[in-house]
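Job type: complex structure
Entries:
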Amino acid sequence: MLKKQLILKDPLSFLGYETEETEKKGSFGAVTSRAGVGKTAFLVQIAISSLLKDKNVLHVSIQDPVDKVNLWYQELFLNLTRDHDVKQSKQLWESLLTKRFIMTFETESFDFSKLISRIDEFSTQKIFIPQLIILDGLTVENSMQPELNILKEYAKKNNLTVWFSIRTHRHQADDPVTLLKQFDTDDSQSLFNMIIQLMPYKDKIQVKRLSIDGQVDGQPPLLIDPSTMMIKETTEK
Amino acid sequence: MKPTMQKVRNIGISAHIDSGKTTLTERFLYLTKKIHRIHEVRGKDGVGATMDSMELEKERGITIASAATYCQWKDHEINIIDTPGHVDFTIEVERALRVLDGAILVLCSVGGVQSQSITVDQQMKRYKVPCVAFINKCDRSGADPFRVIDQLKEKLNHNAVAVQIPIGLEADLSGIVDLIAMKAVYFDGEFGDIIRTEDIPESLMELAMEKREELVDAASIFSDELTEAVIEEAEIPESLLIEAIRTGTIQQKLTPVVMGSAYKNKGIQLVLDAANHFLPSPMDVENEALNLDKNEEPLPLSGKKEDPLVALAFKLEDGQFGQLTYIRVYQGELKKGDTCINVRTGKKIKVGRIVMMHADQMEEVEKIEAGYIGALFGVDCVSGDTFTSSGLNVSMTSMHIPDPVISLAIKAKNNASETSMAKALNRFTKEDPTFNTFISKETGETIISGMGELHLEVYIERMKREYKAEIITGEPSVSYRETITAVTPFDYTHKKQTGGAGQYGRIAGIMEPVADEDFVFENKITGGSIPTQYIPACEKGFKSCIAKGPWMEYPVTGVKITINDGAAHSVDSSEMAFQAAARGAFLQAYYKAKPVLHEPIMKVVIESPAEFQGNVMGSLNQRRGIIIGSHDFGQITTIEAQVPLSEMFGYSTTLRSMTQGKAQFTMEFSTYKQVPKSVLETLEKKNEKKTRTGT
């Protein structure tokens, strides 16, 4: 019951994404913003929603230690279930833990081939078979294009969705799509097929779904309350 | 001449296992001329390090009990407590930190901030102990002290700043650049005891300038004078910079970082200098006692030797010289022949021989003054006891003592061993508050309990070696707990008429689960349906049921009892009748309240070469472990998991064979969680069998 109620709070469906889009084989999503706006918190909410839908989530973090990432999950889950029965929430949390795996890397020790070989190893040994990967804290650069394409192929083959946090700088903040377009090798097909932009707005954070051509994608923007980092279901015009 | 109080340092050395604490202490003792030869922890000479005075410590290459020692460096007196690195023995670390004014946090330049560094750091923060970080093993392949400094900032939230940089790294480590004096320091001679100071090599000048700027910048927050000097671009005197760093360190707002290699004897003198320069003297630390006359209000201690005595016994040892009580004097002085009071027992104690300790050798002294650490002979006390002058009713803050999580039945093989075993247990329980012993009422067996498998193993081994007791051990068993999950009303009448005065008592109310408490009792009786004088008897009756649960006979926790109605008889009601009624009410409600069994879950952290991580994770999965995550350092991976304690028996052997002995793990209690159904069935069967056979 609680699980069903919480699934309704899926941030992606608030933004109008359909299951077919979010669970498409090899889907790449990007949450973009300047530093410190709330990319990790938003990604963790996407992850929690997937966990609630019984999907296995691999959270890969560059730099942040395991405990810190775990704390994000705990806090956001607590905020999500604040109005619900504590005992039920605790039980649900315990059950979600078995579906989540946090893998953290030092910046210098991370590379895509290592990540892929780790996932392969875990899958072969049936330790953990991810369905969603959150890749947080990686500085995505133009030179990474070949590796990103390899990861895309791998994701397609293994029925995976990958969400990235993409940090934008001041001059790119208004135009994350151009930034992401540089990774496309093929004009007809974009590497990233879901783009979400976070921007400070008055005393809140605005969440916009962008289309691949850079337009705000139909849906009105959502707002995040910075004190809880949770989506406020009502939007302000 | 004895140094003044400002020049006394009471310091601890804390770190993760195998970071080199004992090796570092050994160098300290050698350089301060307390010992004349260096013995390595696992050295070929078979002597073992001086601080590892227990035979078992020498054999296993680990430090179990902390030995206190003191030495002199330059014009300062340094009391050092060598602390154990394994989590099973953290009570020793906690005790050491309780009595120390400062600490040296030893970190491995390859491993960086490891799992236990985090535990130790939390303990230091709890007892507000300022520290200097020493990045050891800079001679090892993969050494990167600056990465460790970043980890200190990110993982431990320290405002860490380098006061040195290494000259060369890994096999090329040849010396240290002192960023305060801006000089290169080299350590010549067999044990690095000949110091050669030179100009900073040209190749390192730029880095040294950059790091010094960072240092001055960080320190200037703590000194207006230094800030002024920086703004005016004036020359900064060494003493001014040292003073600013010292102020920041004592306030725990700055962590100066020194580096080197204890094994290769590089940089050790500078660690001692750092302890003198940056760590507080007893005068710099405010200590508080609890005023027992005023509802345990905190009472600041003056630290003056003229004031009445306040001292804390923080460690007992029963060694070759009889019982030794390690003591820290916080106020006043403890003189040979004086009388003082043990606050816990109220008994008077005559102070006999007083000694200052150097591992297992000692130096007899006439008195211990405020701020100093020493040891007494023949004093009857337990660790944690406070000694005061007559008329002063204060106690030092009680220490945080975790509950034991594992127990084991033991039996002596013969009568002689039984006597020795009793003696040993008496001593160990006095020495270590996390180690308990009791006799099982059902089986008559002696049960010992503690903080982990290794913890108990070490005590059994010590009984065999030090007391020559031959011991048979049973299977270790986990401290399960029963608790309830549903709210249930109860209404029970205890009525007995067997001639003479009868027994009558009726109790009604609610039994419900409660989080974070073992037992809560609430009285909501109105109108005197149960007379007030019988309420304590009701509580006592309920309480007597929680020690051993009616279902699986494990202690019951997390229960709230609210009584709201009842009845009494003017002649037949008594305290006994209401106690019996409470027991009846508890049994009536308990099974309806859907009891469940909880088991201790341990936080397990494994450090393993990356190539074995799949196997290691597989082994954790097999043990009902939930893997929280892994952290990749390149060659090494740290895996963090939550695993039931019952599944961790013998894991060290499994891990060793699985990883060719290259992985290590630490384990500490994390939480209690409900036992899954499949495991519960096995436990129930075991329990039934036990009840049937009476064993």
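Summary: Chain B touches chain A through 22 residues (CB under 8 Å). Chain B has a mean pLDDT of 83.
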